[in-house]
Amino acid sequence: MSDQPVLPDYGDPSPCVADNASFCTDWFTAHWSTLFWPALAEHVELTVLAVGFGFVLALAAAVLAHFQGWFTAPASFVASFLYTVPPLALFQLLVPVTGFSVLTVEIALVAYSLYLLFTTVLTGLREVPQDAVRAATGMGLTRRQILFRVELPLAVPSLVSALRITTVMTIGTVAIAAYVIDAGLGSLILKALQSPFNTLFIGSGALAVALALTADGLLLLAGRLLTPWARSRRNA
């Protein structure tokens, strides 16, 4: 029996592919539009949906807890409990109910994101200087107006921080979702683990890392653009 690795049938291979080199740029480029790009787009879509829904739910819960202190304890308990459940276990618990579907993945991803989003957003709201709140009250603003015109704008750094952490974490968790649905970069990584072909493994893994770094950088930039007063304070 030959000691050479058994490569998948990729047609007429180049010398790089035939030798199973560490990374074959020609094969990666040739399969970008048919293999890597669709998986990357699916990964982005799954992440955006999860973080978007999770942020809306967490923001609503944080605002309610900010207004009604009694809600903080039960909301924190539920969010922290969901956060402690390993993603694969949560997938397994949901599959009998929602099947091997995108819905299963999104429910798990949203549940897993709530704790970090809820706690960070609530902390940001509670750390708004009371002098600013009292000044807004003295100007005749209602409680709702104070929330939207004073507290939420001043809490933007905490909101962006929560989104950065949660987005990067979700990008990693989406890769695990390949055990449930054949989608995203995790699907390519899983297939690569079952194959000795190095380029598929390195290419899909590098894209996942690049996606996380890009998302974090874009959110950091968005946070700086949304908080010009913070830049002025640092430059002073």
TrEMBL record:
Membrane topology (UniProt): Multi-pass membrane protein
Keyword Transport set for record: yes
Compartments where located: Cell membrane; Membrane
PANTHER family with a match to the protein in the record: GLYCINE BETAINE/L-PROLINE TRANSPORT SYSTEM PERMEASE PROTEIN PROW, OSMOPROTECTANT IMPORT PERMEASE PROTEIN OSMW
Pfam families: BPD_transp_1
UniProtKB keywords: Membrane, Transmembrane, Transmembrane helix, Transport
Annotated protein name in UniProt: ABC transporter permease
InterPro entries: ABC_transp_perm/SBD, MetI-like, MetI-like_sf
Domain ABC transmembrane type-1 as annotated: residue spans: 40-222
Main location: membrane
Transmembrane stretches, start-end: 46-65, 77-95, 107-125, 154-181, 201-226
Family designation: Belongs to the binding-protein-dependent transport system permease family.
Phylogenetic placement of the source organism: Bacteria, Bacillati, Actinomycetota, Actinomycetes, Kitasatosporales
